[in-house]
Design brief:
The protein is mainly α. The protein contains 9 helices and 5 strands, in the order E-E-H-E-H-H-E-E-H-H-H-H-H-H. The protein folds into 2 domains: 84 residues, Arc Repressor Mutant, subunit A (Orthogonal Bundle), CATH 1.10.10; 150 residues, Up-down Bundle (Four Helix Bundle (Hemerythrin (Met), subunit A)), CATH 1.20.120.
Length: 253
């Protein structure tokens, strides 16, 4: 008999333990592969195939295949003629601009949600995400397992888009997902999460989650928009603090 568990707030409905384990392995490989790419361990043009992912991250072939497809969809890999992938060529500016574009679009989503009086049902789900993320951020201060943060953060941003009720913003956000690091969960594997500066970014980002929901509930569109755009700066700062980039990033404390 297959065992099932309830996933938090409908993140994935009812899933078998094997399905959840596979997703966890996929996330592990995605985070690790992103790290190898942005660190330059895998320079542009490097061939990347399933055996490398299996060996490097200790995952099975199915999660390895899923991780390759996801990282390719994010614009960090390119499909090679025949089979396999190669690391795409992109610059620091490409990454920072992609993050900023996402912030602008999500800012519009937040404004539309506030001005359109998002349903209390969605706002309560966002409240639950914030509460869950409070616990997750606390745990991240003690260990470097980002999987729960990625899941809840993704849920929060999905609900933000749903609250906007805008198909145009949804379509635009879907299109930019092919730009490097343009998704809300563009994290990389790192053992540096215990650094005070990195922890501070996570804490600031979490307070912004809370403030965004408050602004939407209050119907303050301009504040919701500006908070969400500022929130995107956390992704830039996160990458900089982990030593990925030298470029100075605008940061609002």
């Amino acid at each position: 008999m297959t065992a099932y568990v309830e996933w938090p707030i409908g993140l994935a409905g009812r899933q078998s333990m094997s399905e959840i384990a596979s997703q966890s392995q996929t996330l592990k490989a995605v985070l690790g592969l992103r790290g190898l790419i942005v660190d330059g361990v895998l320079p542009p043009g490097s061939r990347v195939a399933e055996p490398l992912i299996v060996q490097e991250f200790g995952v099975s072939r199915t999660p390895a295949r899923a991780a390759l497809a996801q990282v390719a969809a994010e614009g960090l890999l390119e499909k090679r003629a025949g089979s396999g992938y190669a690391v795409a060529s992109f610059t620091e500016s490409d990454i920072f601009q992609a993050i900023e574009i996402r912030g602008i679009l999500e800012g519009l989503a937040a404004r539309y949600a506030a001005e359109g009086q998002a349903s209390e049902t969605i706002l309560k789900q966002m409240d639950k995400c914030v509460t869950a993320l409070d616990d997750v951020v606390d745990s991240l201060l003690e260990n470097s397992d980002q999987s729960d943060y990625v899941e809840w953060n993704d849920r929060f941003h999905s609900l933000l888009l749903e609250a906007s009720g805008s198909s145009m913003v949804a379509t635009s956000l879907e299109r930019i997902k092919t730009l490097p690091f343009a998704t809300p969960n563009a994290f990389v594997k790192s053992m540096d999460l215990n650094r005070p500066a990195v922890q501070r970014v996570l804490l600031v980002a979490q307070e912004q989650h809370r403030s965004i929901v408050e602004a939407i509930r209050a119907g303050n569109g301009s504040r919701a928009q500006s908070l969400t755009l500022e929130h995107s700066f956390c992704a830039k700062r996160y990458l900089q603090l982990l030593g990925r980039f030298e470029k100075k990033i605008p940061w609002v404390a």
